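Researcher: I'm comparing several assemblies side by side, and this is the next one on my list. It has 676 residues spread over two chains. Same procedure as the others: predict the full complex and return the structure.
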Amino acid sequence: MEISEQISKDERKRLMIFLVTIVEAVNLEKTYRLGKIPVNALRGVNLRVGSGDFLAVLGPSGSGKSTLLSLIGALDKPTEGKMIIEGVDVSTLNDDQLADLRRRIGFVFQFFNLIPRFTARENVELSMAIAGLNGAERRKRAEDLLEMVGLRERMNHKPAELSGGEQQRVAIARALANNPKFLLMDEPTGNIDSKAAGEIIGLIKKLNEDKGVTVIMVTHDQRLAGQSKRIVQMFDGLIVQEVVN
Amino acid sequence: MKAQDVLSYSFSAIKLRKLRAGLTTLGVVIGIAAIVALLSITQGLQATITRQLQTGFATDTLIVSTRGGFGGGFGPGAQGATNSGFELLVNDTQIINNIANVEMSMAIIQRIGNVTSGEGNLTATITGVDFAEYASIYSSTFVSESGVIPLNPENEMIVVGKRVSDPWKNGTLFCNVNDGVEIIWINATTLPPKKEIYTGHVTAVLKEIGGFGIGGPSDSGVYIPISQAESFFGTQQCDTIIVKLVNDDKTAIDSVSNAIKEAFSDQVSVTSATAVLNILSNVFSVIQLFLAGIAAISLLVAGIGIMNIMIVSLMERTREIGILKALGMKSRTVLLVFLSESVIIGLIGAAIGIASGWVLANVVAIVFSGRGGIGLGNHAAATGGMSITPVLTPTVTILALVFGVGVSAIFALYPAWRASKLKPVEALRYE
């Protein structure tokens, strides 16, 4: 409290991440084996993400940003170091606990990863069904979320009947369904046209600023990265630069 | 994830590939239908035969025959010849009558002969019996429909079974009461074989018995007095001796059986009606097991089909599994999703299979009955009309259902397990 009263508003915004840390990577290393050759995808990454943050991870392909994302998303475990999410070391969790943790993480993928045989609404409902919510509750919330992303009129369409931008908005609605601690986005505008990408960027920024949703995003898109609060630059498995916007 | 959500998710996956799911289901349908049809037909057959045996068959009787004559249960009428030279004689009944618990005994001489009437000729089993004693032992089946069974038969009297009187069922009778018939028998024990002719007239036609009986009267039997048979066939040797006991207690059956064997120095075999029923029941159990085993092979093939299709499905849906896991689905729920897909297929397949197996069994039974039944039995020179009513017991129904679902679940276990073990990162990257 004392500290926060002494510093300026801008600085407080920046320092907040140290007050309520959600994601913390400590000397994170990840080694894959491609045949017999070990590949060091991450070589000691340190990172903190606090509540309300909007972090963009930039870097050329092969720099380790997708690996970092899958570790933050508890989809994989590090070879060395610690991946701490909400104070819990991911390495110590068993299969079921990891599944529980993933329910509180909102994934958004480059290729949307919607279930093709389900309608937009059913896709949003699916993540809530997995979390064990009952039918009526799911339906209401799915409709509200789709309204928020501007797809209420098209919620009974299947992914194949939706444009790339619309599909990504369904994916964002799905990611938000279980009130996640943070959104984890992998190239969210990487596979859609620039006009739709602009809308998606606007939506993400609105979610972050108005609803206080924490966003961690991997991107090539300089325009999208420019909208974030912080940019982390990766190269060859290491964070080489950190910029506060 | 709630059970109903798992089910509806699995169902949506099945609906997506209707043709494939349909063909997989068909495999289960065929397997289960084969099992149900075969079991219900054999059970129906067993019920029919057992019922007919119990009516044509007194439970308080023993059948004594020379070893190898009657032995294994029911074969074609025994000719009485033995390798050991032992002969069972007509007047051996006196020895048996002296055994405790025996009410009476009677000898039977049987030969295959040709019967000629004004309408044609038939091959039939000619049986020499004491009419009075036979009627007393088989009081429910050795009963006349027309004419009178003479208790003190004069010579040349013949009693015929229903099928001998009316073999063609077209209104023309082969012979009727008071008709004269000729029995021709070739005596092959002399050289050269001698043709013997017995001329008599029909005094009674038996009431229809149905099927067959062991030792007892048959629809296709021709009966002549035992004294006539002795002179006609030129022998004192008999094929079987029917023994009537004072009651049908197991102790009486066992003690008399042993006493008879002892009296004839173990040269005879003694078969009790109850024992024959038990043997028959055992034979049917083996037949059922064998048929069900064959049918089970088709279900096994169906199971392999399920496994194959689930593995293909696993490959196709690797990415989907990755998505589910990223959304927080637990491994065991992924396993359940895959298992329940297969169980739904198994359940639908088993239900359709039971219904179509039942229909199939009835169709087969109708076709079978239409051909005039099956010619099993002791005296089956002509066919005894026997209709089979398929029997589908609740046990078979439930077992078929459990079996269908079980096979589906077991063969889906491996693909489902592999699906549940997929690593989310790798599954999501899968193209």
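Model: For your comparison table: Strands of chain A lie at 21-34, 37-50, 54-58, 80-85, 88-89, 105-108, 182-186, 214-218, 230-235, 238-244.
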